[in-house]
């Protein structure tokens, strides 16, 4: 058995150049990855050469003591789930920077701004004033009342505090909603490109993700006819995300109305409306909450949070609003897993909601900066031959179609086959970390996060263009 383990480990390094790109975090020494030196302490990788995972998973502890064998096998549920590529690439790029490699990180879905001072002060005061204890499972009444006011004034949807569940980030709100409403065999309808976690969350609930592709030429918006043709009696949950991660598309109200009319014809179908990028939107685009449409309140689970608009990713605070029956079910899951969210973050969230309409001046200043960056990137990449762009109307991502570069051969690297190898090439050649579109269900594209200063983006564009130019020649000759 020990031999099996040894042969598994020795083949890990052979997998480095491909698997490591999307693998776990890195240690501190150096190892070669293309022309970049990568740290050498390897993460534990799934080993393709281990024929029987069950057999290979049983390992005798190597020590001077006689210890029982440990069964390292994992549940089929966790084995069915893919790790998040965005988290993996972000961690990897961070580790490279720590190892002294000047990587420009444009992979993270995280604003580069600090949390606005008034919010941070509220958090500090919360600690000073002793708000450091457990809160009610659903969140403090104070924050839930503030959320209800916000939803009424900004979104035109009425909830009582008992229809609100505050969680440790919108991510928790979404997984709990999926777990609460989906039964094994149910279908979760997800337009692609999608946020990486939706299909995996469906799988965690033993439900089946049904992916509906959209077109860049249609600004990545769902075609209502396609939706209608895919709905069955097993369809339980439609997940909408507007403004979208990864495309930045914003669903216009009339399209949402068409979708609502289709949804209304399917009694089993609920809608999870992920509105976490709501405030990061570029006029004249406007945000419509799906629950505000006629007949949709009863079947919509609205998710929002503080991470993006308020630059509060580390505070971990999000929420779900919906009919009490569903919200209570989500609360039950939360009560047996994490309980109430951080007391300090809830005080900070009250301050965030007190900043004014749509986050007031501090959020408007961030949105202005995001808009300038979007304009810069759209202009810069539009100058490149063979790329297709749909101008984002919100969020802070650009999802660019680079597929005309696929098939090109890069000297010393090999063939650029797909979005993953193009990202690997760009990390290798230009030291810019981006996320391959296949992580979001669209292999033609690459996601660029513009949550970085204009100067950083200028440097990144220069490096990317330089790395792409020999490829362009290769494609066009
Ligand atoms: C579309 C979308 N929904 C939800 C989340 C989760 O946000 P958080 O858990 O930080 O509130 C993210 C974070 O990247 C996101 O992009």
TrEMBL record:
Provide an example Pfam family for this protein. Answer: Aminotran_1_2
Similarity comment: Belongs to the class-I pyridoxal-phosphate-dependent aminotransferase family.
- Name of the protein this chain belongs to: Bifunctional aspartate aminotransferase and glutamate/aspartate-prephenate aminotransferase
> Which cofactors does this gene product need?
pyridoxal 5'-phosphate
Give a GO molecular function annotation for the protein.
transaminase activity
Q: Which domain of life is it from?
A: Eukaryota
Record domain Aminotransferase class I/classII large: where: 102-464
Is the keyword Transferase in the record? yes
Query: Does the keyword Transferase feature in the UniProt annotation?
Result: yes
User: What InterPro entries does this protein map onto?
Assistant: Aminotransferase_I/II_large, AspAT/PAT-like, NHTrfase_class1_PyrdxlP-BS, PyrdxlP-dep_Trfase, PyrdxlP-dep_Trfase_major, PyrdxlP-dep_Trfase_small
Keywords, sorted A to Z: Aminotransferase, Pyridoxal phosphate, Transferase
């Amino acid at each position: 058995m020990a031999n099996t383990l040894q042969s598994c480990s020795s083949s890990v390094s052979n997998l480095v150049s491909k698997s490591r790109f999307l693998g776990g975090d890195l240690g501190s020494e150096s190892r070669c990855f293309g022309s970049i030196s990568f740290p050498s302490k390897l993460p534990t990788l799934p080993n393709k050469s281990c024929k029987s995972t069950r057999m290979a998973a049983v390992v005798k502890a190597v020590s001077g003591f006689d210890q029982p064998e440990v069964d390292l096998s994992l549940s089929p549920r966790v084995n069915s789930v893919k790790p998040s590529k965005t988290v993996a690439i972000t961690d990897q790029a961070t580790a490279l920077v720590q190892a002294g490699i000047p990587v420009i990180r444009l992979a993270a879905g995280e604003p580069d701004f600090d949390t606005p001072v008034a919010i941070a002060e509220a958090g500090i005061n919360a600690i000073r004033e002793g708000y450091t204890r457990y809160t009610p499972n659903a969140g403090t009444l104070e924050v839930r009342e503030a959320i209800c006011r916000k939803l009424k004034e900004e979104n035109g949807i009425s909830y009582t505090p008992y229809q609100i569940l505050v969680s440790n980030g919108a991510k928790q709100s979404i997984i709990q909603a999926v777990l609460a409403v989906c039964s094994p065999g149910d279908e979760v309808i997800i337009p692609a490109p999608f946020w990486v976690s939706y299909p995996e969350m469906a799988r965690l609930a033993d439900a089946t993700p049904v992916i509906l592709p959209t077109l860049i030429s249609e600004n990545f918006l769902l075609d209502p006819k396609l939706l209608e043709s895919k709905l069955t009696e097993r369809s339980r949950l439609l997940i909408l995300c507007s403004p979208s991660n990864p495309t930045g598309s914003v669903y216009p109200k009339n399209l949402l109305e068409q979708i609502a009319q289709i949804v209304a014809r399917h009694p089993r179908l609920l809608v999870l409306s992920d509105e976490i990028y709501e405030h990061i939107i570029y006029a004249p685009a406007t945000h419509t909450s799906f629950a505000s449409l006629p007949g949709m309140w009863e079947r919509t689970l609205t998710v929002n949070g503080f991470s993006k608009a308020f630059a509060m990713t580390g505070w971990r605070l999000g929420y779900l609003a919906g009919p009490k029956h569903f919200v209570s079910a989500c609360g039950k899951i939360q009560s047996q897993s994490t309980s109430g969210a951080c007391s300090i973050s809830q005080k900070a969230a009250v301050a965030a909601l007190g900043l004014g309409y749509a986050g007031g001046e501090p959020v408007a200043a961030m949105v202005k900066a995001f808009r300038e960056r979007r304009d810069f990137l759209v202009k810069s990449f539009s100058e490149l031959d063979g790329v297709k762009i749909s101008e984002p109307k919100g969020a802070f991502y650009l999802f660019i179609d680079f597929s005309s570069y696929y098939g090109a051969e890069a000297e010393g690297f090999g063939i650029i086959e797909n979005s993953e190898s193009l990202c690997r090439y760009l990390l290798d050649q230009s030291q810019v970390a981006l996320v391959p579109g296949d992580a979001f269900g669209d292999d033609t594209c690459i996601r660029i996060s513009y949550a970085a200063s204009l100067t950083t983006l200028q440097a990144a564009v220069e490096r990317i263009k330089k790395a792409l130019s020999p490829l362009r020649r290769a494609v066009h000759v």
